Amino acid sequence: VLRDSKLYVEYFPVPRLGRFLTDETKDSFVQSLNRETPTMRLQDFLRRSTDLREEMVHQDRLSRFRPLSILARQNENFKKLAYIVTVIINVLLVGTLESSQATTSGDLANLNVPGYKIGSWGMLRATDKTLDWLSRLQLGLQSIILLFHAINHSNLHILRVWKGIRLNYVESQGASALVTEGARVGVIGLLRHGPPLKAGGRQTKKQLTFMAHVVYVVLSVLLVFTDGVYLYYLISVGVAALGAFYNYAFFTFHLMDIMIQNETLKNVVRAVTYNWKQLVMTLILMVIIIYTYAVIAFFRFRALYILTDDSNTDEFVCENLLQCSVITLDQGLRNGGGIGDFAAEPGWNDAGLQYQGEFIAYKLSFFILIIVVMLNIIFGIIIDTFADL
Questions:
Q1: Residue 316 bridge partners (DSSP)
Q2: What angle do CA 43, 380, 263 make, to 5 degrees?
Q3: How much is the average pLDDT of 51-65?
Q4: Bridge partners for 104 per DSSP
Q5: Beta-carbon contacts of residue 33 (< 8 Å; ≥ 6 apart)
Q6: In CA terms, which of 47, 177, 179, 249 is 20 to 30 Å from 192?
Q7: 253: closest CA among 40, 83, 27?
Q8: Could you say which DSSP state residue 63 is in?
Q9: Nearest-CA neighbor of 240 among 252, 227, 231?
Q10: Backbone torsions φ then ψ of 236, nearest 5 degrees
């Protein structure tokens, strides 16, 4: 601290609650704090400070059950262990999984997929028992991760949702409309403004009627499923069960967990999800423009939408507007030159010459509007968002 033109060292005591702030929360806070301007940084810090304190209080209560608290705070290590097991399973599958019979051309016609078996490749000699053991270990680890996430975060999530309901009610009706201390709260009052608060800002359920208390418990349980992270881990448990008892291929899903564990990859995902409304509206506009081109193609260039198979047999694929729309969307986006790379040329003879000018304008305008403009707008939104994170 600078005082009287001299630099002094000031020591601030660390509150006892400070030691209950988890490393996961610290890393998440540092990575996701809004730093666009100094003012917004301070506002975001103050806004989130209440949540941080609630988490520390919750962890302080958990510490009274010492064995459970120690295990719950090791959840990040369980996640790392689960990911290592996932990688091992997938490495074994890559090295040993093979078709149980030769695939024939007849399988392509009806999309028949032959069975699979565990073979061997190089020094990797996995057996069904090895993969069964690993798959059940993975199922157990995913279940532990889900349980400890619920212990660490679900109660906090429920409290924050009820607090949000209360704040919305205060903003719309005013603080004077809240139930006074000591008054009974029924089901309607609970649904309007949530459970009442006692001194210190903590929720209390003593003022709830019996039916309101039952409704509060039921809604609180349901609110757990509004936590996106909890749903993710719940799905992970389900996928692990499918992988353990149905098909090992489901374990490839768990490789995606690296996006949850790595903060750098979280920012990559945020670059897409942060401005999701702009992206969705831009995609809707792009689909509308492509549909407009499909309608034009159906009435003017239907004969140019041709697919040629291996036997050089031509198939016209714009025989109805739905088919024409799907082909225009699929081929128009996947080809670097737009729909012009897919559609046949009308030719320069007398029969096709009358269509040449129209078709050139059609395919060039599609290329400019969709490939050059719309796709680059989408890429630009994602890139600019990523740069700002």
A1: 306
A2: 50
A3: 79
A4: none
A5: 41, 44, 45, 48
A6: 47
A7: 83
A8: T
A9: 252
A10: -60, -40
Q: Cβ(308)–Cβ(342) under 8 Å?
A: no
* 351: Cα separation from own chain's centroid: 53
What would the two tokens of residue 139 be? 């199922």
Per-residue pLDDT, averaged over 171-185, amounts to 64
Across the range 113-133, mean pLDDT stands at 65
Do the beta carbons of residue 80 and residue 261 sit within 8 Å? yes
The radius of gyration computed from the CA coordinates of the chain, to the nearest angstrom, equals: 30
For residue 347, the one-letter residue type is G
**Contacts by 305-310 with C-beta closer than 8 Å and gap 24+?**
305/342, 305/343, 305/344, 306/343, 306/344
In single-letter form, the type of residue at position 199 comes to: A
DSSP H helical segments within 251-306, as ranges?
258-261, 263-273, 276-300
CB atoms within 10 A of CB 253: 16
* pLDDT (0 to 100) of residue 360: 87
pLDDT at 272: 81
- Other CB atoms within 10 A of residue 322 CB: 10
Q: Count of residues for the chain?
A: 389
pLDDT band at 356 (very low <50, low <70, confident <90, very high): confident
Distance of alpha carbon 45 from alpha carbon 289, whole angstroms: 43
Q: How many Å apart are CA 16 and CA 19, to the nearest integer?
A: 6
Give CA separation, 71 vs 66, 259, 356, 379, in Å.
9, 24, 72, 43
Residues 6+ apart with CB under 8 A from 242: 250
**What spatial distance separates the first Cα and last Cα of the chain, rounded to whole Å?**
31
Structure-block tokens of residue 181: 């201390």
| Interacting residues of 211 by C-beta distance below 8 A, sequence separation 6+ | 186, 187
Arithmetic mean of pLDDT, 284-313: 86
Q: Is the dihedral of CA 132, 231, 91, 112 positive or negative?
A: positive
